[in-house]
Predict the 3D structure of the following.
Amino acid sequence: MKTKAREKAEFRKKDLNYYMSLPYPITLEEFEENGERRFTLAIPDLPGCGAEGDTLEEARRNLEEAKEDWLSVSLDEGLPIPEPAFEEEFSGKFLLRIPPKLHMRLSKLAGKAGVSLNQFIRSTLDHAVNHGAIMAKLNLIEDSLNEIKTDLRRRKSRSKIDEPQTLPVTSL
């Protein structure tokens, strides 16, 4: 059993070097911007901590700087710093308290679907989480399409300005 003094001592040991050495999972997204290939890296366990680069190596260097800045500010401000989360740390079981009326409705829906309540809730949660991820990607695609449309409109309006104007010839 940990005592308060021991917890405080452990907390003090968790300095910048400690957090920088932790193997935080990183997400990678590759995209094109103005015809150039770019990379975005993020650390989901550290909300808002991400970086970009023209090359993967540049993005990695930028992410290390962003990670150090994120952790330094959090330590200086005394903010909680989450440690990396790994799948093997989760059992796949959790207790969820819901209102009895919702419990009843979910049970009825599971019965109509011909599955257990547990299977129904798992598939519903899976669908909701995946739907959120799909919607986020669709929003990114929509933003990119809007940028392309704006660029095309701009180019079209510039080309109209650059076109030589022919004036009608009138007889004198």
